Predict the 3D structure of the following.
Amino acid sequence: MTGPAAADTTPTDVRSFDGTRLALSVWGPEEAPVVVLVHGLGLSIESWGEVPELLADRHRVLGYDLRGHAQSGDARSGGYDLEAHARDLDAVLTACLPEGRRAVVAGHSFGGGIILATARLVGTERMAGVVFAGSGGSGVTAPGLPARRLPHGVQAAAQKGWFRVLRVTALVGRRLRPVKAVSDRLVRRAAFAADAPEDAVAQVRDSFLTTRPLALAGTTMASVNHDGIRLAPYLDVPTLVLHGRNDPEVPPDDLQELMTALPDGEAVQMPGAGHMLPLLHPHVVAEQIARWAARTSG
């Protein structure tokens, strides 16, 4: 490491419960308050943009790539379900936090669902606080079809069908990478406000299309079939929710349900912002995470 704001040149490996290798990047002084960043589906730690560097002058920042994503290894026996992703986050916290220390854990998009699942699975002993940046915690079986409103058998059938469709789509998408106009239009609609810059859209598109197809399909299934609002009561630490008013993935009704279910929650609205808050609004996101770290450090 060349300075307090420089990332480690070689990611450190953390081994999860099933032996899956998780690539970890580290910024900032070792004794500073710890912030752990969890990225979203089909992305990588790079989707946090400048946030790690902006925090690194006064924080120890840890970020890892989800299993099957970017520099992390493919899943071993644990697959790509939500529990496996939750156990990965627990493995990172256990390996990187000295005994008695806690971290502010920040999740973007599906990263928020992973944090909620971790709270249910192992509790919040290692979390001082939580920040959701572009994450609402709701669960769906398919876009626009809420999972918690369907009978269990119908949910299971829908999820099985969607897994097959998603895996085929991921495979086809990799072969159609030159068709950038189509893929960029889909990415822009799903993740960005209308005026988002082209280079940011291209970065997210390339990240999606280079994620391994099985990991992308399996993690998508984990993201669409869970009900994060049902898990929200397990998150018994102060939780900050940063919400872009133009976020197509987190509608206002989902945000309201999440805030009602959280034991200790605060919402900050960002006018004109879409879903990719860390990438497009890094200064605001870093400032809010630093504020939350200062609030919970005691």
Notes: The mean pLDDT is 83.
